[in-house]
Amino acid sequence: MARGGLLVLALMILADCIAQCRTPLIVPDGGVQMGVRLNGAYDFAKEIAACPIRYVLADDLTRLCTALAYSRGAKTLDCTDLLHVPGSSVWVEWLTQASCAELEAYGFRHQGSTPVSRRRGALVRASVDGRRGVIRTFWSGPQEPDALASSVEAYFDLDTPVDEAPNHTDGDTRPAFTLFDSSREGGDDMLRRCFRFRYEKSWADYYDRARLTPRERHAILRHVLGTIALDVPILLTFFLLLATRSELPRRPERYDRLNRARSAAGKAVLLDHVEVRAPWVPGFPTAAIAGAGGGRRHPRLHHVRGHLVRRGSQLFWRLPHLRGSARSGLIRSRTVTWTFEQGQTLRSEPRSYEGPRH
Questions:
Q1: Residue 103 confidence (pLDDT) above 90
Q2: DSSP one-letter code for 85
Q3: Among 304, 311, 305, 321, which Cα is nearest to 357's?
Q4: SS3 112
Q5: Which of 17, 13, 19 is nearest to 45 (CA)?
Q6: Residue 330, pLDDT score
Q7: Digit-coded pLDDT (tens) for 130-151
Q8: What residue ranges in 58-194 does DSSP mark as E strands?
Q9: How far is the C-alpha of 10 from the C-alpha of 87, rounded, in Å?
Q10: How many CB atoms lie within 10 A of CB 112?
Q11: pLDDT, tens digit (0-9, with 9 covering 90-100), for 241-279
């Protein structure tokens, strides 16, 4: 029994937690004695269970996507014309620890009062061409199988012209918020141009009734935007890698036999999904781990951040690496090339990798 329980716990991805959510979100409201129901994970249970495309990112791919999205010099968001969502309904999730480690290496700090979730995920509803849609993010709660949903959603149109705003994909004209990369001031910031963030309708009504002061509204907005904003570049980077010509390493996870036993026992079935890995050896040397290990270092030993360069239909990303004394190991060229099909539906994988020589 104990072994079976541990097996099921190991297989419980965030999509399973949401699909098995049976309790709607009810919160106190001063004018409503029974409280008010807000849109949450419960409202997405059936949709995620029926979602035709579910990706679970391995830690190496999560770190890669985060590094590509946030490394200085990385220009993932310059590749708007190469991006598209690979389906009308797509679920993507990853372990929070992997993305947080990489984010911290690039200067992001998490508030100590905010508990770090175990898994994060996003549901993307997109147009047929994958160029416009709506994103909602989720994360695991303090205890399995709790799952929480962001009160903010993002809508986007990757074909938005400069100096224009993306169209409301559902015709809803509620107030929306703009985010931008301050380091790209004066340039074409795709996040600012193509994305808008807004409260989900039930949450917008809830906050409107709360009679908050402007300062309180601003503090709440900053907090809730943090539950989705950092995930968007990671998500876009993953879709960019999927758009390259060769395939990312994938492993379908199916639970037919286990689910037959669970169904016979009256338990909820586990969801099939595809695990996706980075396209080279696991554990590539990121900024978070490149300096690990003991021993003395030469004073000139330093870390070189990864950076992304586009030349026509090709992307070149130089891996983060150490540079300096050969006593610490000689790091040779680490350039990975992705080639895109021109004028065709786009797909994924790097061309070359040259690892460290010791």
A1: no
A2: -
A3: 321
A4: coil
A5: 19
A6: 45
A7: 999 999 999 987 666 789 999 9
A8: 89-95, 119-126, 132-140, 147-157
A9: 28
A10: 6
A11: 888 766 788 999 999 999 999 999 999 999 999 999 987
Contacts of 79 (CB under 8 A, 6+ apart): 240, 310, 315
- 172-200: average pLDDT: 78
C-beta of residue 56 within 8 angstroms of C-beta of residue 274: yes
Here the contacts of 17-22 (C-beta below 8 Å, separation 24 or greater) are 17/41, 17/140, 17/144, 17/145, 17/146, 17/147, 18/44, 18/45, 18/48, 18/121, 18/138, 18/147, 19/45, 19/46, 19/48, 19/49, 19/268, 19/271, 20/45, 20/145, 20/268, 21/45, 21/145, 21/147
> Which tokens go with 80?
């708007």
Place of tokens 């879709």: 239
Please tell me the distance from the alpha carbon of residue 234 to that of residue 134, in angstroms, as a whole number.
16
Q: Exposed/middle/buried for 303, CB within 10 Å: 0-12, 13-18, 19+?
A: middle
Contact by Cβ (8 Å): 311, 339: no
Which residues does 355 contact at the CB level (< 8 Å), separation at least 6? 281, 332, 334
